[in-house]
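Q: How do we represent a protein-ligand complex in a form that can be generated token by token?
A: Start from the inputs.
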Amino acid sequence: MPDQQRPLSGTTPQGSVGSVRLLGVPIRLHFTFVLLLVFLIVSGLGGSQSMAYYAVYLIALFASVLLHELGHAWVGSRYGIHTIEVVMFPIGGVSRMERDPKPNQELWIALAGPLVNLVLAGVLFALLYYRHAIVGLRDLLQPTDTNLIERIAFGNLILALFNFIPAYPMDGGRVLRSILARFKTENEATRIAAWAGRMLAISMGLYGLLATHFLLVFVAFFVYLGAAQESAAAMGRTLTAGMPVRSAMVTEFHTLEHGSTIRDAANLLLATSQQDFPVMHGDQFLGLLGRNALMRALAHDGQEAYVGGAMDREPPRLSPDQDLADVLPLMAQSGMCAVVMDGNEHLVGLLTAENLSQFLLLRRFGMQPDPQHADVAH
Ligand code: ZN
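Then emit the structure tokens for the protein with zinc ion bound:
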């Protein structure tokens, strides 16, 4: 199943339901995954297998995908890269890691997932072989209670092989990229792996349409999305590499005093196009009041409450000289706002996702940012 280790930080992605923790990693189900389960349950009923065995089959496949993801997470943690969460999509899991691994680390993190499935398949097949219970491939197409273990083993084999395909967003695409990165720049390597992913998706989709195999079209669609997302991320890295945070940050913004009320903040929200307001005590930065926190405070505490009670005291902090490419993963979430502090703990700017996307657009059309940009205001 295609999956990715997109380094997104922050809170719950949209559309996920429920959450449990395994090995310290939060696992979420995307709502489309629930739809798939319903589809599988409805379409799989009847036939010559009992309902209980069908449920065991589905749970076993789900667990296999989960173990695959935990394989990535475990090797990642060996390199000190924390997995923020695993989201289960219909065609597989997506592990979100806190940062991009280095190419040689990525090789092993990517290999770990499909290797888990390969080992599971190997162990199950060995068990069946030992018991002389292996049946032919053709018999597997007819699901029965007796070939349950073999179907689970075969499912794991498919999972492993599919993920070894050297195209983004499959794990094989990451392996390909980490190998290419030894000869080419990382961005070129990403672009090639993403291109391979798009080509794979298009051929898979066409074949699926011609052969009226619509599950394949469905998978192709997700593969295409994943590949497109990866190449956009690579483009973002190319456009921001070597650029300091100061070249993209907002330097003209309104602030609130720590004695201001929610009413003052709401008025400022209406009067400006700003969504996040730094709360200051003179020169000292105390916290950041975002639009959502403002709305929550308005609903719960009323308009006479102080902004100090509603603000975020630990918003993401950046330094003006930090490389923009390094902060891109952090900022990928829309609505995200980071404060930019200089060496003396003075607030010098804000970096928002909206502003960053405008910066990327301008860069794409060839604009060289003004190195003096940060000195224009204040
Ligand atoms: Zn994987």
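The pocket of zinc ion is lined by residues 3, 68, 72, 113, 163, 171 (CB under 6 Å). The mean pLDDT is 81.
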